[in-house]
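$ run holo --ligand "magnesium ion" --emit tokens
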Amino acid sequence: QHPKPYSIACIPADGIGPEVIAAGVQVLKTLSAASGSFQLSFTDYDWSSETYKKTGQYIPAGGLDSLKAHDAILFGAVGAPDVPDHLSLWGLRLAICQPFQQYANVRPTRILRGTESPLRKAAPGDLDWVIVRENSEGEYAGQGGRSHRGRAWETATEVSIFTRAAVERVMRFAFETARGRPRKTLTYVTKSNAQRNGMVMWDEIALEVAREFPDVKVDKMLVDAMTCRMVLQPQSLDTIVATNLHADILSDLAAALAGSIGIAPTSNLDPTREHPSMFEPIHGSAFDITGKGVANPVGTFWTAAEMLRWLGEEEAADKLMECIEKVCEKKIVTRDLGGEATTKQVTSAVCEEIKQAY
Ligand code: NAI
Ligand code: MG
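-- output --
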């Protein structure tokens, strides 16, 4: 049988993005060669804050159409010290997520074998979550305005948009995710005591959709109390769904509780599969360590595993996760995980494990 071909668009972009994406591509190439069952071709897009500073645009004319031709997008990180963050985020990342209707942002977190959680009592297995973040509207809908700039009475509004259609679809996706996991529990997180319109609608829709999933246990939390529960009772949580802003914050906390922001992956999914989905490590461009060769590539490796899973290559995805954990158990880890290894050393070690695994 011929290996199944997939076409991947790579957008390494800024800061440590190019370092971790190069590592991710090396691991993916090793994996596809070893497995023999699939083949990946990579197309590089040099869209970044550098191109923005030269041309005034992150994505050139026709850029989105050219992305559509790929099966998936592998993204690094966007953000530069001399470009305001709201321009870089909206210019590149959201400029792909929103038109491609990648409405489900999925963030698995767990304590990898061989690594330690900053939580004194948590061992691998005690923290094993999937956070589903609404990724198309809410607090990041882009509605609002500013008037009377610079005056004492300057006014700004940032309007959250919650639509039934968007909340229902992400809720259904979250229930399906919960159903596919051993504990079959979904915690929906809102702030419906203080925000009495959009958040109350979220709560209502959660309970409506729950009726379609009688086998999934439903659990409700307010977002402030949720931060305490994540720290104090990590074992009590499994799948979590929340708004764009709330889940953005909770998922950074989740990554840190699992050991480092450098290990966690993100999938921006269009569950209808009309558009390619986009996969990225959760971290940003990390200016403080850019160019030093010490960025943790594990977040990108795990991201690559999530991408393969979405493409239907479950076996390769499982094997890759196994290889990552073996390397962590050997303590070949970067500084953020308490080790001394470089990006390149971790990458070579994972590639070696892959060759052994087949
Ligand atoms: P950050 O994630 O870039 O860095 C936070 C801290 O974590 C830094 O100390 C950094 O060194 C460390 N860190 C991050 N990734 C690491 C890795 N792979 N290995 C080891 N250590 C790692 O977040 P920050 O500093 O808030 O943002 C920097 C820039 O990145 C900003 O311009 C921001 O807008 C952008 N950003 C972009 C994101 C994206 O493209 N999806 C996500 C988050 C931030
Ligand atoms: Mg974030």
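-- notes --
The domain at 117-258 is CATH 3.40.718.10 (Isopropylmalate Dehydrogenase).
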